[in-house]
Amino acid sequence: MTKLPACILNSDVLTACEGCLARDRSNEHLIAGLTCAKRNMESGQHLFVGSDEQLHVYLIRSGAVCLYKMLRGGRRQIVAFKFAGDFIIPAANGPHRFSAQAMTAVELRVFPLALFRAAASGDARFMARLHEIAVAELCKAYDLISILGHHDAEASVAAFLLDVDGRAALHVGGAGAVILPMLRTDIADYLGLTHETVSRVLTSFKRKGLIDVGRGRTVRIKERATLAALVGKAESAVSSGAR
Amino acid sequence: MTKLPACILNSDVLTACEGCLARDRSNEHLIAGLTCAKRNMESGQHLFVGSDEQLHVYLIRSGAVCLYKMLRGGRRQIVAFKFAGDFIIPAANGPHRFSAQAMTAVELRVFPLALFRAAASGDARFMARLHEIAVAELCKAYDLISILGHHDAEASVAAFLLDVDGRAALHVGGAGAVILPMLRTDIADYLGLTHETVSRVLTSFKRKGLIDVGRGRTVRIKERATLAALVGKAESAVSSGAR
DNA sequence: CGCTGAATTGACAATTCTCAATAGACGTGG
DNA sequence: CCACGTCTATTGAGAATTGTCAATTCAGCG
User: Where are the domains of chain A?
Assistant: First the structure.
C-alpha cells in the first residue's frame, strides 16, 4: 500500500487540511504518482464550467468557491459552497455536472483526476476516504434539501448562518464574527430565494438583535439559540407515527 | 479477493438486480461471510426510524419505500423514493439520519451492516461499488435540490413524473402507464408542496392532455416533450457568463 | 470625488398555503 | 351484492409569503 498524505487519509479533511499540504512547496510528490500543482484564481473566475471535461481534483487552500447549476428561466441553483480545506472531486465520468466559480481570490491545489483515481482504485484505504468524502457531501446535500423543503425564508437564512458559522475557515478574530464571502445573490441562489428576501430577513434578524451585520460582509451571531429555534431543532428523523 | 454477487458488482444495480438475488432462495451465502435474510413488510410499516441504530443494508426486491425526515412544524421531507432493485445503505455511523417507510407491500433482502462493511473494507472493488452507489445517490440528491430550488409547482410535478416514468420497476403492461405507489401527500412531501397543490397540478396536466390519470394510481404520460419543456431541458450546468 | 456594483427598502402582483367542504375509491360486513 | 365507513383525492375561497419591479442608499475603488 502506498504512502498517502495525511490530507487524504484523515477523517476531518473536509474542514482542515492545514499542515499536510502546507509542507508541499513547489509541486513535490505527495505520494507515488500523485502530484499536485498550485493555482491561484481571482474572484469571479471559473475553475470549470458544466460543459468542460472533468480533468482535475481540486483542494481549496484559501478562499471560497461555489458549485452551481443553471436552471430553467435563468435561475441559478448553487448546490454547495466550498471553503479552505474542502475538496472538489468529480463524481462520475463525462462532463462536469456543475460549474465552479471563485467567490473570492482562491488558492488551489490541483491533482490530475486520472492519477487521483488510479491511486484510489489500487488502495482500499484511499477508496474508503473517497467514499467518506462523498458521503459527507451527500449529508450536506440532504441538509440543503431539508432547507429548501422548508419553504420558510427565515428558517432558511438562519440555517445558512449557523452552517457557515460552523466553518472555522471563515472566522475572523475576536468577537466570533464570520465573513460571508458570498454575495446576497449567492446566498439567495443557494437557499432558493431572491436576494431581496435574503436582505429583508437579515435586516429583520438585525432588528431583532439576533445578529450584527458589520462592515466587509461580516456577520456576528448574537442569539444562536433563537436562530436554531427558527431552523427548528425540532427537526428530527423520528417518525411521527404510522400512517 | 472474494467472490462478489453480480448485484453488488454491476454498475446498474440501482435500478435492476433481477437475476442475481433471484437465485438465492432461503438465505444461502452469497459471498463468504455475507448473507442476506428475507423480510416482507406491509404498506405503512417502517423499516426503521431515525432514532434506530443502523444495523442493516436493505435491498428492495419489490414494492416501494420512502426515506424521510421530519422538519420543524410537522413538515415531512421525503428525501428519496426507493423501488425494486434499489439499495438502502447506511452512510455513516450512529443512528439513522432518516426514517424508512414502506409505501406498498415490500419484499426485502436484509444484510447485516457489519458484515457488509467488513466485506467492503477488504475489497477495493466492493468499496468502489459502494462509492459508485453513494455517488448515484448524490446525483439524485442534486436533482432534487434543483427541483426544490425551482419554486415552480408545475415544473416540480413534471420532473417528478418524468423521473418516476424512467423507473422500469413501476411500469404496467401495455400503454406505457406507470403506477404511482405513493400518495399525493408523499409526492408533495418530496417536492416541497402540499397535496392540494399536487392534485391541482395533476388535474391541470390532465385537462391540457399531457397525461392520463387512470384507476389505481395509474398515470400515463401523453406529451413527454411538453412535460420536459416545463421542467426546462434548458437546465444546464453551463455558466451564463462571468459575473 | 465620482463611478460602479451591491445592498436595502418599498409597493404591488402572483403563487402557494391554509382551511374547509365535497366527491371518489376501497374494503368490510350485513 | 349493496350499504356503510374510512381514507384519499379533488375542488374552492381567502390569507400569507415571497417574487417582481423600481428606486434609493451604501461601499469600494480608481
Answer: 12-128, 149-242
Q: What's the CA gap between B93 and A24, in Å, rounded?
A: 33
> Over the stretch B170-222, which tens digit does the pLDDT of each residue have?
777 667 788 899 999 999 999 999 999 999 999 999 999 999 998 878 999 99
Length B233 CA → D26 C1' (Å): 39
Half-sphere exposure of B72 (CA within 13 A, CB side): 19
Helices (H) and strands (E) in chain B, counts: 7, 11
Q: Quick check: A70 and B240 in contact, CB under 8 A?
A: yes
Q: Does A231 touch chain B (CB under 8 A)?
A: yes
Of the candidate CATH numbers 3.20.20.80, 1.20.140.10, 1.10.10.10, 2.60.40.10, the domain formed by B149-242 belongs to 1.10.10.10
Q: Is B90 an interface residue toward A (CB < 8 Å)?
A: no
Rounded CA-CA distance A45/A219 in Å is: 25
Asked if B213 CB < 7 A from strand D, the reply is yes
Strand order across the A177-179 sheet: A177-179, A218-221, A211-213
In terms of CA atoms, which chain B residue is nearest residue A141? Answer: B141
Each residue of A77-124: pLDDT tens digit? 999 999 988 899 998 888 999 999 999 999 888 888 988 888 888 777
E strands in chain A: 37-41, 46-48, 56-62, 64-70, 76-83, 87-88, 99-102, 106-112, 177-179, 211-213, 218-221
| A243 Cβ nearer than 7 Å to chain D strand | yes
For the CA of B233 and the C1' of D18, the distance in angstroms is: 25
